[in-house]
Specification:
Elements (H helix, E strand, L loop, with lengths): L26 H6 L5 H13 L1 H9 L13 E4 L8 E4 L4 E2 L1 H5 L1 H8 L3 E6 L6 E5 H17 L7 E5 L5 H12 L2 E4 L6 H11 L3 E5 L2 E3 L2 E3 L1 H14 L6 E5 L17 E3 H4 L12 E2 L3 E7 L7 E6 L1 H14 L7 E4 L6 H13 L3 E5 L10 H9 L3 E4 L1 H9 L3 H4 L8 E5 L5 H11 L6 E4 L33 E4 L10 E7 L9 E2 L3 H9 L6 E9 L5 E6 L3 E4 L2 E4 H9 L4 E11 L3 E10 L7 H14 L8 E4 L13 H8 L16 H8 L4
Parallel strand pairs: 4-17, 6-7, 6-8, 8-11, 11-12, 16-17, 16-18, 18-19, 19-20, 29-30
Antiparallel strand pairs: 1-2, 3-13, 4-5, 9-10, 14-15, 15-23, 21-22, 22-24, 24-25, 26-27, 28-29
Helix pairs in contact: 2-3, 6-7, 8-9, 11-12, 14-16
The structure holds adenosine-5'-monophosphate-propyl ester.
The site of adenosine-5'-monophosphate-propyl ester has 22 residues, from helix 12, strand 20, strand 24 and strand 25.
Organism: Nicotiana attenuata
GO molecular function, one term: ATP binding
Pathway: Phytoalexin biosynthesis; 3,4',5-trihydroxystilbene biosynthesis; 3,4',5-trihydroxystilbene from trans-4-coumarate: step 1/2
Length: 674
């Protein structure tokens, strides 16, 4: 039976069950769901926005607090015209997120429950950790870190692949009040160095190497180069704690700096398996995660403890309709926000059993994901549209040869999911019976903002549907005027929610100007968005100079600055272009030094420089030689025109007469296939 929309506070008009674009949850699913109808959602949502303090306090009471928070429960100012931007939740409360993930669940009888099923790169290589065992491992590392002088408020950089040691390291930092900053193990030495120089960690934690699919990646060598570079800039790291990932590389052949490098296995197991908790204020920092913005320098997004804890746990529970018997697998890497909130914290706070996968989803073949789903009886599977599209191309047979009958909820994140990929995911992977939670959110938001609650209302392929409890999205026009009903414009949020980021590390000014100045009174997301007649939200992509490649956020300015560091490149302009699998691809226009001929060799060396400066995931898909770039008379590059050339939409070039030299456009078109 379709949930009726009558009396809904959100949906203006009833959703017609005959509407072919609506995909209804089954009656059985709705009946057992945490939120079983749109009315129930409406009631809860109504309270969450009318009485945020009461709503979130009730939920927060379910966690362990050494000391209860004070009053007011939250304080916020999102209006730049009223002074400094400020967000606080549960201030004065003393808690610890590691305690809430582990000790609290153990005390309630879940010590022997599996916390992590770890699946290695090679099929058959696996391991498990119960909640008790995970706590013991976390405590040993926490004790070691304390012993070498890491304390409350100190930063720790973690550069690890998806080994169990990655969540262990995050939790160990949280236990002692240290601030972790995980750097995705696909970033280059230079990117790590940049982050080291920004947050000045006490220690760097890494491993010697990792196997991803058929490739070995020598992570320690990359860290060595980063530490050399940061030392040249005056930041010396005393300890580089290195885990021996034996299946990828033996200890004996790992390059080593005596005195600085320490093998994890030599020290950590010697420490006690219990470790006292550092009780921190709800507003004490939990982690820093660097993300791309429209200017070159990555931004250190800072999240604090209490609100983040309450919100990630709650969103996890409702958006995936999580129940204690579920087996959950999120394919994201802990190097990104998805891995923070929905591999480590959200699931463990709920006492969930989590699959952590080291390898590549298409290795040894395109059926690996479904092999893992069957092996562990995964019931909630959360991934990115780019993976869905790439597996879809391999054909249904890789999917249908596995049972997948354990699956009950699917999830998508990172970019808008195109309706054809949505339908394949739903019909082929989920056999038409598993709702898809298309979760829209950001590094900055900490947790889901717009997401289906499976079981509560019908989905529409390609729409993230409706706001989560406490979230008040608004769509504004270019003047910042709030639009009503069916509309299209810029997505903003009014009022704070508990897991909102509190600042950009060391640069509150940039925080205010980037996110709160464009549309005073609101948090500006950087995304374009439509709202349809039923109140559903449809994200249309970034409206700033950020592109989204395979769900990874990349600033065009970062790629441009990497390209111009090449000795033969004088100017570069990067735009996003539609890509069948990655969502968006990176398309780079480059102007070379006078007299330097464009060649295949040069193209490769330009790509190499981006891989070295940022990481392989940011390598341009296309280099377009541009003897000149379309600029206005004041010298501003007209990216609008470049986007049209890149997407071959030549009849949409628009007015080019205002360019300083309109002939460059024809020249660029002629060189498109060079
Ligand atoms: O453009 C939106 C897109 O990803 C951006 C946030 O990127 P990042 O901070 O790296 O976090 C990614 C994982 C949360 C957003 O501004 N995005 C994320 N999820 C969706 C999405 N776009 C559409 N639909 C989504 N479900």
């Amino acid at each position: 039976m379709a949930p009726s929309t009558k009396n809904s506070v959100i949906l203006g008009e009833a959703l017609a069950s005959e509407d072919v674009n609506l995909v209804f949850p089954t009656e059985d699913f709705s009946r057992q769901a945490h939120v079983s109808s749109i009315q129930k959602y409406g009631e809860k949502y109504g309270r969450s926005v009318e009485d945020p303090a009461g709503f979130w306090s009730d939920i927060a009471s379910g966690f362990y607090w050494k000391q209860k928070w004070g009053q007011p429960v939250y304080a916020d100012n999102l209006d730049i015209r009223k002074g400094k931007i400020n967000i606080e939740w549960f201030k004065g409360g003393k808690t610890n997120i590691c305690y809430n993930c582990l000790d609290r669940n153990i005390k309630s009888g879940n010590g022997d429950k599996i916390a992590i099923y770890w699946e290695g790169n090679e099929p058959g290589h696996d391991a498990t950790l119960t909640y008790n065992q995970l706590l013991a491992r976390v405590c040993q590392l926490a004790n070691y870190l304390k012993d070498i002088g890491v304390g409350k408020g100190d930063a720790v950089i973690i550069y690890l692949p998806m080994l169990m040691e990655l969540p262990i390291a995050m939790l160990a930092c949280a236990r002692i009040g240290a601030i972790h900053s995980v750097v995705f193990a696909g970033f280059s030495a230079e990117s790590i160095a940049q982050r080291i120089m920004d947050c000045k960690p006490k220690v760097v934690i890494t491993c010697n190497a990792v196997r991803r699919g058929p490739k070995t990646i020598f992570l320690k060598d990359i860290v060595d180069a980063a530490l050399t570079e940061s030392a040249q800039n005056g930041i010396n790291i005393d300890v580089c704690l290195t885990f021996e990932n034996e299946s990828a590389l033996k200890k004996e052949v790992t390059k080593w700096v005596e005195g600085r490098d320490i093998w994890w296995q030599d020290v950590v197991p010697k420490y006690p398996v219990t470790c006292e908790v550092e009780w921190v204020d709800a507003e004490d920092p939990l982690f820093l995660l660097y993300t791309s913005g429209s200017t070159g320098k990555p931004k250190g997004v800072l999240h604090t403890t209490g609100g983040y804890m309450v919100y990630t746990a709650t969103t996890f529970k409702y958006a995936f309709d999580y129940k204690s018997k579920d087996i959950y697998w999120c394919t994201a890497d802990c190097g990104w926000i998805t891995g923070h909130s929905y591999v480590t914290y959200g699931p463990l706070l709920n006492g969930a059993t989590n699959v952590v996968f080291e390898g590549a989803p298409n290795y040894p073949d395109a059926g690996r994901c479904w092999d893992i789903v069957d092996k562990y009886k995964v019931s909630i599977f959360y991934t990115a549209p780019t993976l869905v599209r790439s597996l879809m191309r391999e054909g249904d047979e890789y999917v249908t040869r596995y049972s997948r009958k354990s699956l009950r909820v699917l999830g998508s994140v990172g970019e808008p999911i195109n309706p054809s990929a949505w339908r394949w995911f739903f019909n082929v992977v989920g056999d038409g019976r598993c709702p898809i939670s298309d979760t829209w959110w950001q590094t900055e938001t900490g947790g889901f903002m717009i997401t289906p609650l499976p079981g509560a209302w019908p989905q529409k392929p390609g729409s993230a549907t409706l706001p989560f409890f406490g979230v008040q999205p608004v769509i504004v026009d270019e003047k910042g005027v709030e639009l009503e009903g069916e509309c299209s414009g810029y997505l903003c949020v009014k009022s704070s929610w508990p897991s909102a980021f509190r600042t950009l590390y060391g640069d509150h000014e940039r925080y205010q100007t980037t996110y709160f100045s464009a549309f005073p009174g609101y948090y500006f997301t950087g995304d374009g968005c439509n709202r349809d007649k039923d109140g559903y939200y449809w994200l249309t992509g970034r409206v700033d100079d950020v592109i989204n490649v395979s769900g990874h956020r990349i600033g065009t300015a970062e790629v441009e600055s990497a390209l111009v560091s090449h000795p033969q490149c004088v100017e570069a302009a990067v735009v996003g272009v539609e890509h069948e699998v990655k969502g968006q691809g990176i398309y780079a226009f480059v102007t070379l030094t006078e007299g330097v001929p464009y060649s295949e060799e040069l193209r490769k060396s330009l790509i190499k420089v981006v891989r070295e400066k940022i990481g392989a995931f940011a390598a341009p898909d296309k280099i377009h030689w541009a003897p000149g770039l379309p600029k206005t008379r004041s010298g501003k590059i007209m990216r609008r025109i470049l986007r049209k050339i890149a997407s071959k939409s030549l009849d949409e070039l628009g007015d080019t007469s205002t360019l300083a030299d309109p002939s460059v456009v024809d020249q660029l078109i002629a060189l498109a296939d060079c």
